[in-house]
Amino acid sequence: MAYLILFQALVFYIPRFLWKSLEAGKLEAIREYVKTLPDQKSKGKVMTYLLNNKKEVEIPTLSDTFFWSLFFCEVLNLVAALGQMFLMDAFVGNTLLPNIKHIHQVFSPSLRATEVESFIKAFPRVTKCTFSLYGPSGSIVTYDAICILAYNALIEKIVVLLWWADF
Fold first, then answer.
1. In sequence order, what DSSP letters do the residues of 108-131 get, joined into one string?
2. Do 119 and 66 fall within a single domain?
3. Counting beta carbons within 10 angstroms of the beta carbon of residue 134, is it exposed (0 to 12), middle (13 to 18) or buried (19 or more)?
4. At which of 62, 91, 120 does a domain end?
5. Rg (CA), the chain
6. pLDDT value at position 52?
7. How far apart are CA 137 and CA 68, in angstroms?
8. Number of domains in the chain
9. Which of 50, 84, 124, 135 would you label with 6, given CA atoms 20 to 30 Å apart?
10. 65 lies in which domain range?
């Protein structure tokens, strides 16, 4: 689970890294300059000048490679988000997409066993455990028990929240 979350973070960082390297603070510099102007009329004049003199000020246009490279970063973000959504669904055994209408019920304790049974199959709460311990005579004695996996309930909620954030 930790490796999956690390992988997701890296996949989402790639478009951000490309954006930061391509944009290189150009838009922030323009915004900071406009913020320093004293009144709204001055800001309007500067913005009109910037829009009318795009070539001299290096403001990107639709035909500019700067625009298309940033647009590519946005498309890459969308592809990463959709890919992460399907990856997370595959990671939990294809239980998220088929049960999308019941996903909100994961956080309510009522009606859990009937409507969200596939989530319980993906993240079991109770399982059979086998313990091998030394008995009174020094021989190994095997005990069968029922173990409660409370940690899986937490993991289920984290996975659903991450998946819902991608959606």
1. SSTTHHHHTHHHHHHS-SEEEEEE
2. no
3. exposed
4. 91
5. 27
6. 67
7. 77
8. 2
9. 124
10. 1-91
Residue 97 CB partners (closer than 8 Å, separation 6+): 86, 89
Which H helix or E strand runs over 147?
Answer: strand 140-148
The SS3 call for residue 140 is strand
Quick check: pTM over 0.85? no
DSSP state at residue 6: H
Assess whether 3 and 77 both reside in one domain: yes
Residue 69 resides in a domain: yes
59 and 118 co-located in one domain: no
User: Do 115 and 81 fall into the same domain?
Assistant: no
Q: Are 98 and 112 in contact (CB under 8 A)?
A: no
The rounded Cα 26 to chain-centroid distance in angstroms is 28
Asked if residue 97 belongs to a domain, the reply is no
What is the Cα–Cα distance from 1 to 12, expressed in whole angstroms? 17
Pairwise CA distance, residues 40 & 112, whole Å: 56
Residues 27-80: tens digit of each pLDDT: 777 777 777 777 777 777 777 776 666 655 555 554 577 778 888 988 998 998
